[in-house]
């Protein structure tokens, strides 16, 4: 009996020896723009917004930029500001890109943000506006975080330019919006016979006239609906034939028309 | 108070109470009458009954023993109720009644699922009801058989002639849409849409005065969601189909689905789950619109192909107003006036009205049409042979016998034989000698033929045994003068047809008790089942 008690004491002694004290983070806290969400779209600090993939009758759209906390959550709200800052238009894009204007290209938004108590992130919501100008020019909007005593700039990814200057990219977001509707991956081969050569204006016209959801239009499965697409091609050609003044392609000279299979 | 005094008072009160109750008169009724006590046996409550939807006839013969009363006076009710039935959502007990006979003989017309059955025996002399329950599981195996569209008080009654539980005998599953809450209208036509491998499509189509609907799934679903107008880009309200024909072999190697509307417009699309009809093509050479007669001549075989094995057969239509044959050749998009090579037996601009056209199933490219001389009882037979982007004429002549009274025509799928039906008789005509008509069927004077056809089976491998039906002549008839309110007036018959011209046809199947028959089609297995 005594031997058993001794063994148990020894076992208990070694067991407690395995326990560790967990060292929690005791330093400062910081904020940065999340780069996990939208990571497929995000290019460094730039987030493109393609109005062209959204149905033409939708004139405003709300986007949400997630701001993450690094450090400990707190038992109280921690405020900080997000400001619209000067957007830098690349020289080679000056003819086709303009700085977004508040009230024209986006609605005024609440600059005062906060990481709520016991939360590790927050969202900045900005309402973007669709204007006719986007048909020819893209718009650029840059928003930047401001650090505070409680929320500092402790973390960000960095990129280097050609001169090896390093830039922290998760302290701001550059939103570039345009009317781009990329060529669907199914628009080739037989579909060329139905719709003719691809142009973005033609694709947008088809979607608008036929009330085709643009997300559905861009899906690979949409291209398999050949019988329906044949109807769309014929319908569009008849519709184009009825337009006065006629509809031209983006160059303003080429008459928009469908492919040879839609000329019946 | 002294305990002894209290004791005496209690004793005195008890005695008084005892004396008072002895004075109470008994008003009870001791004139007992024995009541009937019924025991129900013979229903298996230990196991679940299993039935195949539209294939099993559920038969239960209960054993009823009663202590008194006459069994002949009892009232019986069989109900089969889905486990998830909800009276709060409008389900009523009456709609689940499947029989009021003592012994249940019920061709199961239920969708797959779990059910509880109730057998109720009521003694009307006392109003007492005894109930025994049982469990039923219904399984869908794919429902095939003859669908018969019947007219009944402004709606379509859909009857199914399927097999029994053993797959041997034909059984009538009457009024499949008895509980369907959808106003589909009165029936006009039944078609079957499918390809030869049931790879993409496979459903019957019902045309009524209100629209055209596919009949979907093993539970024969019909509704707004099965309206075929959704298949048409240029139709917004409704589509009334006069003809639906499947061309199995095409240049694209995908079966083609031809539709001719009751307005005479010709539509076509691929026969796949992505079918969609674009603009009609009934424009001669793409220029002049014509109204097509409700018939399409196609080739069901594929012997004649071009060097690339494209099934490039011509397709025949008919200009109903211009009274002329039209054809679409090869890659041409629109039909044009039919051009025939080889010998010229008839003028393609016939000046006659088309009343029938169909295509052989096994004779490569053989198309047969019947035209009537305007304002005349004379009928003429036209035979055409489709080839690779060409058409030849091979039969022509006036149809003999009482053709003036002809109501229906049917072309045998493999023999060069045409049948036509008058009010209650059927005649056979050989294509090479149409002037000689032989009477082969004579129904009772009290019957009137309502449908005559050879039903093409598109997917020969889909439903074992069904291909035999293709060579059977289908004759449906209705009672000519039914009694007021009499509804089960239809009779379905199948006849075996001998190859010899002088051989008599033999009745193979007869099912009575159908509704007022309008049309019939064989429902093949589709991709869903």
Number of discrete domains of chain B: 3
Q: Estimate the strand proportion of chain B.
A: 35-45%
Secondary structure category of chain A: alpha/beta
Quaternary state of the chains: heterodimer
Sheet/helix structural class of chain B: mainly beta
- Biggest sheet statistics of chain A: 6 strands, mixed
Give a short account of the largest sheet of chain B. 5 strands, mixed
Q: How many helices of chain A?
A: 5
CATH topology descriptor of the largest domain in chain A: Immunoglobulin-like
Task: Provide a descriptive summary of the structure in words.
The complex is a heterodimer of chains A (264) and B (529). Chain A has 264 residues and is α/β, with parallel strands linked by helices. Chain A folds into 2 domains: 29-178, CalX-beta domain (Immunoglobulin-like), CATH 2.60.40.2030; 190-262, no CATH class. Chain A contains 5 helices and 12 strands. Chain A has helices at residues 2-17, 190-195, 200-210, 214-218, 226-242; strands spanning 29-33, 46-50, 60-70, 78-85, 97-99, 112-115, 121-129, 138-145, 151-152, 158-160, 166-168, 172-178. In chain A, a hairpin with a 5-residue loop joins β10 and β11. Chain B is mostly beta strands. Chain B folds into 3 domains: 3-139, Immunoglobulin-like, CATH 2.60.40.10; 144-280 and 439-529, no CATH class; 282-398, no CATH class. Chain B has 1 helix and 36 strands. In chain B, the strands form 11 sheets. In chain B, strands 2-9-8-5-6 form a 5-stranded mixed β-sheet, with no helix packed on it. In chain B, strands 12-11-10-36 form a 4-stranded antiparallel β-sheet, with no helix packed on it. The longest helix of chain B is centred in the N-terminal third of the chain and has 20 residues, at 3-22. Chain B is elongated, with a radius of gyration of 33 Å. The model of chain B has no long low-confidence stretch (mean pLDDT 88). At the A-B interface, α5 of A face loops of B.
């Amino acid at each position: 009996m005594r031997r058993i008690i001794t063994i148990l004491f020894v076992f208990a002694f070694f067991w407690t020896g395995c326990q560790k004290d967990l060292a929690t983070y005791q330093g400062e806290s910081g904020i940065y723009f999340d780069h996990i969400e939208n990571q497929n779209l995000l290019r460094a600090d730039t987030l493109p917004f393609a109005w062209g993939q959204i149905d033409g009758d939708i004139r405003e759209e709300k986007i949400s930029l997630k701001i993450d906390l690094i450090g400990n959550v707190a038992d109280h709200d921690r405020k900080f500001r997000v400001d619209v800052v000067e957007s830098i238009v690349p020289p080679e894009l000056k003819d086709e890109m303009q700085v977004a204007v508040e009230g024209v290209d986006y609605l005024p938004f609440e600059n005062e943000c906060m990481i709520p108590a016991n939360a590790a992130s927050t969202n900045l919501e900005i309402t973007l506006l669709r204007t006719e100008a986007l048909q020819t020019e893209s718009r650029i909007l840059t928003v930047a975080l401001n650090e505070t005593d409680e929320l500092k700039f402790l973390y960000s990814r960095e990129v280097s330019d050609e001169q090896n200057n390093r830039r922290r990219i998760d302290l701001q977001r550059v939103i570039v919006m345009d009317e781009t509707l990329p060529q669907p991956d199914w628009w080739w081969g037989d579909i060329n016979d139905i719709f003719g050569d691809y142009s973005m204006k033609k694709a947008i016209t088809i979607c608008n006239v036929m009330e085709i959801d643009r997300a559905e239009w861009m899906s690979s499965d949409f291209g398999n609906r050949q019988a329906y697409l044949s109807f769309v091609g014929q319908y569009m050609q008849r519709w184009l034939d009825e337009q006065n003044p006629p509809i031209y392609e983006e160059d303003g000279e080429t008459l928009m028309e469908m492919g040879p299979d839609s000329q019946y | 108070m002294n305990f002894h005094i209290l004791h005496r008072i209690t004793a005195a009160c008890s005695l008084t109470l005892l004396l008072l109750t002895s004075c109470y008169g008994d008003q009870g009724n001791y004139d007992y009458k024995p009541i009937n006590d019924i025991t129900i046996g013979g229903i298996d409550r230990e196991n679940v009954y299993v039935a195949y939807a539209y294939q099993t006839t559920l038969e239960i013969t209960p054993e009823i023993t009663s202590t008194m009363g006459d069994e002949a006076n009892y009232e019986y009710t069989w109900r089969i109720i889905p486990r998830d039935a909800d009276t709060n959502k409008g389900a009523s007990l009456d709609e689940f009644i499947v029989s009021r006979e003592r012994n249940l003989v019920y061709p199961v017309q239920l969708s797959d699922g779990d059910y509880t059955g109730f057998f109720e025996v009521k003694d009307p002399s006392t109003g007492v009801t005894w109930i025994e329950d049982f469990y039923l599981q219904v399984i869908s195996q794919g429902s095939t058989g003859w669908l018969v569209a019947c007219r009944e008080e402004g709606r379509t009654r859909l009857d199914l002639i399927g097999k029994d539980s053993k797959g041997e005998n034909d059984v009538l599953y009457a009024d499949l849409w008895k509980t369907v809450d959808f106003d589909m209208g009165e029936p006009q036509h039944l078609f079957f849409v499918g390809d030869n491998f049931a790879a993409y499509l496979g459903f019957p189509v019902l045309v009524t005065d209100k629209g055209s609907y596919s009949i979907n799934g093993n539970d024969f679903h019909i509704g707004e969601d099965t309206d075929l107008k959704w298949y048409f880009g240029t139709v917004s309200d409704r589509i009334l189909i006069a003809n639906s024909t499947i061309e199995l072999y095409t240049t694209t190697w995908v079966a083609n689905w031809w539709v001719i509307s009751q307005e005479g417009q010709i539509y076509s699309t691929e026969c796949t789950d992505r079918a969609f009809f674009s603009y009609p093509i009934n424009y001669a050479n793409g220029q002049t619109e014509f109204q097509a007669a409700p018939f399409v001549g196609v080739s069901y075989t594929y012997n004649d192909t071009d060097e690339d094995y494209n099934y490039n057969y011509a397709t025949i239509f008919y200009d109903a107003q211009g009274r002329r044959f039209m054809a679409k050749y090869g890659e041409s998009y629109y039909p044009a006036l039919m051009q025939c090579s080889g010998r010229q037996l008839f003028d393609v601009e016939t000046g006659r009205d088309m009343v029938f056209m169909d295509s052989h199933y096994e004779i490569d490219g053989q198309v047969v049409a019947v035209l009537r001389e305007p304002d005349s009882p004379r009928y003429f037979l036209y035979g055409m042979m489709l080839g690779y982007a060409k058409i030849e004429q091979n039969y022509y002549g006036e149809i003999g016998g009482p053709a003036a009274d002809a109501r229906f025509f049917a072309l045998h799928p493999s023999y060069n034989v045409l049948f036509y039906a008058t009010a209650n008789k059927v005649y056979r005509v050989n294509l090479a000698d149409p002037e000689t008509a032989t009477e082969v069927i004579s129904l009772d004077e009290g019957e009137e033929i309502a449908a005559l056809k050879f039903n093409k089976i598109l997917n020969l491998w889909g439903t074992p045994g069904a291909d035999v039906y293709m060579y059977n002549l289908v004759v449906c008839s209705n009672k000519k003068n039914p009694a007021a309110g009499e509804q089960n007036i239809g009779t379905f018959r199948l006849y075996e047809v001998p190859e010899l011209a002088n051989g008599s046809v033999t009745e193979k199947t007869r099912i009575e008790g159908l509704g007022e028959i309008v049309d019939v089609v064989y429902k093949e297995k589709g991709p869903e089942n």
